[in-house]
Specification:
Number of helices: 11
Helix content: 55-70%
Structural class: mainly alpha
Strand order of the largest sheet: 1-2
CATH architecture: Orthogonal Bundle
Order of helices and strands: HHHHHHHHEHHEH
Oligomer: single chain
Number of strands: 2
CATH class: Mainly Alpha
Largest sheet: 2 strands, parallel
Radius of gyration: 16 Å
CATH superfamily: Hypothetical protein, domain 2
Strand content: under 5%
Length: 188
């Protein structure tokens, strides 16, 4: 049995073992994590993972082009959907961020090109021995957050962005005692 650095429930173990920290360059998935991290603000990540399939269905499988065209009817539909987080500010942020995401794609060729440039296109591999060492945010997440906000994104505070960096493999924050740390470090 794997000695994970975290993950107590089956859905959290599966996420830990297959996704968290894996370098991700696919724009649709990067957008999915950006929306989900924003939705998670103030909630547990397990709550979001348990609703992930509902989010995918409600938000057009995280197709930024489709979401950018959402109107008042879509907002009403989302506000009635008990399968997702029904927070108007977060829903409005997802719609706004889809438009800003498309702007970044036009400017940089892809969102991946933009976001990965902050780490020189190579993941930061930390060597954490305990969760007490794990930051909630860093100077780099502060910088990315500020740049995203300057570009008009919302719900992209430094803590949300650091969680996005961890989820998408821009930073490997598995504990060195966790088998996933070495597996992910070898992917880079």
């Amino acid at each position: 049995m794997m000695r994970r650095c975290w993950g107590e429930t089956p859905i959290m173990m599966e996420y830990h073992d297959t996704e968290w920290g894996v370098p991700l360059h696919d724009d649709r998935k990067l957008f999915e994590f950006l929306v989900l991290q924003g939705m998670q603000a103030g909630l547990s990540w397990s709550t979001i993972l348990n609703k992930r399939e509902n989010f995918r269905a409600a938000f057009s499988n995280f197709d930024a082009r489709k979401i950018a065209n959402y109107d008042a009817k879509d907002i009403r539909r989302l506000m009635k959907d008990a399968g997702i987080i029904r927070n108007r500010l977060k829903i409005m942020a997802a719609i706004n961020n889809s438009k800003r995401f498309l702007d970044v794609q036009r400017e940089f060729g892809s969102f991946g090109n933009y976001i990965w440039a902050f780490v020189g296109n190579k993941p930061v591999t930390n060597k954490l021995k305990s969760f007490r060492e794990m930051p909630a945010r860093t100077e780099l997440s502060n910088k990315i957050s500020a740049d995203l906000r300057k570009r008009g994104f919302s719900f992209v505070g430094s803590t949300i962005i650091y969680a996005h960096m961890q989820a998408t493999g821009m930073v490997n924050d598995h504990l060195v005692s966790c088998p996933r740390w070495k597996q992910i470090a070898q992917m880079t």
